[in-house]
Amino acid sequence: MTSRQKKALRIMDKADKAIIDCLQSNARCSNAEIARSVGLAPSAVLERIRKLERNGVLHGYEARLDPEAMGLGMLAFLFVRVARCPAEPGTAAKLAAIPEVLEVHHVAGEDCFLLKVRTSSTRGLHRILTDEFNAIGGIESTKSTIVLETVKETGKLPLPQLDEPGLDKPDPDSEANG
Fold first, then answer.
1. Which residues contact 178 (CB under 8 A, 6 or more apart)?
2. CA angle centred on 148, ends 146 and 151, rounded to 5°
3. Could you tell me which of 48, 50, 51, 55 has the C-alpha nearest to residue 4?
4. Whole-angstrom Cα distance, residue 64 to residue 76?
5. What is the pLDDT of residues 44-62, one digit of tens each?
6. Residue 16: exposed, middle, or buried by beta-carbon count in 10 A (0-12, 13-18, 19+)?
């Protein structure tokens, strides 16, 4: 565990975990609604959220769109191998700049990157594989896996158990604790 991870976990208590859980379920939840669910004053909830943002636990808030409704019903995972792995600087950034590419992961194994891609059709995927990837250069091979059905897709992270050592101790420097 990195020192950043240890710090983030050390400053969290049960109320912080409950706040995070509420926000992961519905990022539009108001401070008043969160306060009612966790048993704190709205001002204390706001201060805790700000502390979690400052400490890098909360990075932002997003709307989750229905890909089908947006005309992007085709989901594919692409393994990408480049000429030199680790790839030349900028290859990952160039892959990430393609609008249909939702995720870029540098991976161990035969390939260099794993991409999550959403398009409207196989024609859209073909365009990415030919036009977009050729413009990047240095890509030796790709392997595509087209998803037939998504059983689970979430950005909600499992939260650590607070009975782990050091996780139920509030940050003594914070006025928002308790």
1. 15, 170
2. 115
3. 55
4. 18
5. 999 999 999 998 899 888 8
6. buried
